Amino acid sequence: MYMAYGWPQAIPLLEPPSSLPSGRVVYVKVANHLLLVVAAGHLELWSASQHRVRLGMHVRDADSIKREGENLQAVWSPDSKTVAILTSSLYLHIYKVRFSGNKLLVGGKQLSGLSLASISLVYGEKAPLSDKNWVTSNFSCDSRSIILGLANGSLNLISWKGEFSESFEIGHSPQTTTDGEPKLPESTSFSPFVSDRGSHGIIDGHYYARSAVIHVDLSVLLRLLIVLYSDGRIALCSISKKGLKQAESIKSERWMTVDDAVCVSIASEQQVLAVGCRRGAVELYDLAESAIHLRTVSLYDWGYSVEDTGPVSCIDWTPDNSAFAVGWKCRGLTVWSVSGCRLMSTIRQIGMSSISSPMVKPNQDFKCEPLVGGTSFVHWDEYGYKLYAVEEGSLERVLAFSFGKCSISRGLSSTTYVRQVIYGEDRVLVVQSDESNDLKIIHLNLPVSYVSQNWPILHVVASKDGMYLAIAGLRGLILYDLRYKKWRVFGDVTQEQQIECKGLLWLGKIVVVCNFIQESNMYELLFFPRYHLDQSSLLLRKSLVGKPVVMDVFDDYLLVTYRPFDVHIFHVKISGEISPSSTPVLQLSTVRELSIMTAKSHPAAMSFIPDIPPRKEVPKKGNIHSSLDSLVIQPSRCLILRSNGELSLLDLDDGHERGLTDSVELFWVTSGQSEEKTNLIEEVSWLDYGCRGMQVWYPSPGADPYKQEDFLQ
């Protein structure tokens, strides 16, 4: 889950000389810690790491622009070494990006990994395209080729050396059989039905008149090419293992139609297709389930219509595909979660009634609203901490919005809920209630000595009592005591750099680090006491059998899951007190191993369901906490949230998995986690959040032991 904080940073762009056309920004992309901006008459390369520095640029002269036209479309190679640009006069320019190797110095200090770059033109020739068959789409690419769409509905491939292929079309118009039914080409998988959602997800078998290709998007991971036509047809095409190199290997597998579609974007990890529409809405489709319609996301429920925002102009998914940014042509930018939760919006929220839309008034003051003139480009950085956006028609700047991530039980990191922790690229925000029960945010700036060498922050977890934070960047580990406001770091930087943290857990007073060893390509668990970060104080080093995907902890039990679906459960036994004055001994024993064959998607999060005896067995007097600890037994069940949003319950005794619901983003286990259990919380086992909103699950006697209720009930 993402949350925006602070005012957006402005990255100033080069002001073109008066002799050159002002033009506009035509391309923005972030890759390998670099930001590339292509404008009508020049290119700029910026660092997209901790420090925003212009590393290089290339400015075209007035004669070149007059002779060959302004920059129109651009694409950056996956290795960040080559930029291909098509001009308005159909000239193809190919630029090479080379780094000097001389490290930059700022304030007398060397910036890690930054050096000046040169951008030089290595190829410039007229493209073999006719003026009548204009380029009408964006560019997309892989490591071998570039693909673009043309006005006559055909596609063209270009190698990174500037070699053009012959134009080709995706599929063919259906031929009519003797009984009058359309006959589809063999390469097209087709289901002849008409959706009950109107234009949403119609499989179109009765067409095909010629129309222009207006947008293309490529997923190398899924080996999938999406081609959008001006009449709303969308072709879902498979590509070969060799990528886009051969046109004959691109085959249409499915056709769908969204009448007013203007752009598309693929979430490869989630296997979701987002389609932006002229009516200002975004339609989401499940690519794993034959492209069925999932949901519609729009600002209509927030009181804004297409008259306020205009059509969708751009969509970009976060790196983990859990959220996406939407820019509109006339006004604003919004970030949504995959289940439709609005996470951030630049548009002022004036009213909540969708009947009376808060229209823009001519004399209304919008000095404090970013992107009020519309959004032409959006792009996330590699970690999801920065969202770069360009205002429609602007050549002055690129805006960088800062985002924090909520520290939740997901993947290899787990946390509790005494405090909510949000972490950004170089800071931590702790959300908690004060004496008057009002929420406040504690802003923690990390030690410069650590974050400057290990940017960005990747993992943050809070201890069970909420008093300690464990924080890890690219390397190393630091701890923070919230009570005494003190940091604990490795005294030996060499030891710090030996840790490449892939996950964090708190086990009482012990922090558990999932460490990746590059030399041997192995993973291990490191158990450090919170009072001392040093190899001499390491309590245990446990080698893992493979790359873990999910971890969780409850009481003295540790869960580690590997792909495809192997679950190992360990019991941790500690002898002695965990303090500097004693020498504790930690033993780790395997109590359960499960290897489950399943065709389901891999787990994104797992959590033990505590097995707490009935309330009548718990003593009513004395130390309730110690009594509960003595009664806690080995958990026999755990919740599984899969990457596609499926929530299920796994029996750890027999390996049986029971499906509960789908389209879930987050879940919270509440049963057995609080000493002060009252009323509802005593009965609730867990809560989940997704496209249906918040839902509560609680135990119930009878054949169906778990019932699901809407949160409002």
From TrEMBL:
Q: According to the lineage, what is the superkingdom? A: Eukaryota
Cite the SUPFAM superfamilies for this sequence: DPP6 N-terminal domain-like
- Alphabetical GO biological process terms: intracellular protein transport; retrograde transport, endosome to Golgi
Q: Which InterPro entries match?
A: Ric1, WD40/YVTN_repeat-like_dom_sf
Gene Ontology cellular component list = cytosol; Golgi membrane; Ric1-Rgp1 guanyl-nucleotide exchange factor complex
Residue ranges that the Swiss-Prot or TrEMBL entry lists as coiled coil: none
Its protein name is Uncharacterized protein
